[in-house]
C-alpha cells in the first residue's frame, strides 16, 4: 500500500484498535488523517458533517463511492479529479466503489449543462459501459475496489414503485432550489432530467444497504444530487443513519479557463484517442502557475517532495522539473511506466532530430498531429518525393533546399539531388520522415 504513495509518504501509522486502518499519513513530519491530506491538497470543496466523517474514517474502513455515466467510451482528464480522490481513499485502506451509470446514463445528467443531452441508444450505452469498466479496473486494480452498474437495480423499478416508494420522498420545491435544476429553469429542463437526482439518490441508498457505503464523492456540481441522497436515506432509514457527502472544487487554470480543455479538444485516457505521448506532453506543458496545484491533485507525491518542486519552480523555472515530474507521474498512473519511457524517448528524438532511433509505433504516436502525406511503397527520387507530396512548391525550390542541406530524410541530412528513397528501408516500411529546416517535420505514410 505504501508503494503507491510516493515521495515522503513512506509509512503509515495505524492506531492500536481492532477496526482501525491505515488512514493516517506521515506527510512533512505530521500525522495526517485522510481528510487532512485532502484538505492540504486543496481537494475539498464541500463536506457534510466534517466532524462525523473525520471520526468515521479514523474508526474503520468505510465504503466510498464515485459514479460516472457512460456518455462516451472513454474517461477524460476532467473525470480524473474526483476519481483521484477515490483512489486516495482506496490507498488508505478504505473500500472504493465505482458506479458505471448504465441506468442514469440512459436518461442524462443535467449537471454542468445548459441544454438537454441527446439520448443515446441502449446499444451505445452498453458499449460505453464496457469500455469505462475496463478503464476503471486498469486504474484501480483489484484491491479494495468494487465496480457496479446501476442499470442492474434501476431497471428493475417499475413506474408505480418509483412514484410511491421514492417520488413521495422528494419535495418539488426543494428540487427546484437545487443548483443543478435552478440553473436550467430559464432554458428549460425535461421531466426526464429533472428526476435524475432521485435516481442518484436511489444509487446512494442501494450502495449503503448492499455494500455498506457511507460516503459519496463527486464534482462541485454534484453537491445537490449527493445531499438529496442523504436526505432520502434519512427519511427511509432514520435520521441517525450515517451518510456523508464530499465534493471536489471546480478546477480552473491560472488564466481562468476550465481545466482539461485544449485547442484540440478533450485529453482522453484512451490511448487510441489521446496517445500516451500526447498525454505526457499535455502535462509537460502546464503553466508554472498551475503545476504545483496539479501535483497535489493528480499525483501521490508527498508534501515534502512537492514543496521541493515548488522551490524549483520559483528558483529555476526554465528547467521545468515540476512539469516533468507531473508528466511522469500521471502518465505512469494512467498508461504505465513503459509509456513514460516511450514518451520521453519520442520527446528526445524529436528535440535532437535523431528520429531514426524511433520505432514505427513511436512514430505513429509522436507524429500524430504533424503534417502527413501519402506515398507509394516504390523507390522514389528525393526531389520527386518533395514535390509530389507538396512539401516543396516546385522542383527548383526542392533542389535548392536539398543542395543547401535543409532537407533531412529519416534524420539524415541529404544533399545529393539524385538521392533515391526506398520506403522499405526504414520504420518497418511504413513511414518516411522528412524534415525541412530545424523543426518542420512531415510524415510520409506508405500506402
Automatic annotation (TrEMBL):
InterPro entries per record: aa-tRNA-synth_I_CS (IPR001412), aa-tRNA-synth_Ic (IPR002305), Rossmann-like_a/b/a_fold (IPR014729), S4_RNA-bd (IPR002942), S4_RNA-bd_sf (IPR036986), SYY-like_C (IPR054608), Tyr-tRNA-ligase (IPR002307), Tyr-tRNA-ligase_bac-type (IPR024088)
Keywords, sorted A to Z: Aminoacyl-tRNA synthetase, ATP-binding, Cytoplasm, Ligase, Nucleotide-binding, Protein biosynthesis, RNA-binding
Localization: Cytoplasm
Binding-site positions, ATP: 261
Residues the record lists as binding L-tyrosine: 65, 196, 200
EC class (word): ligase
Pfam name, any one: tRNA-synt_1b
E.C. numbers: 6.1.1.1
Gene Ontology cellular component list: cytosol
Presence of the UniProt keyword RNA-binding in the record: yes
Record family assignment: Belongs to the class-I aminoacyl-tRNA synthetase family. TyrS type 1 subfamily.
Protein's name according to its UniProt entry: Tyrosine--tRNA ligase
Protein's organism: Liquorilactobacillus hordei DSM 19519
Gene that this polypeptide is encoded by: tyrS
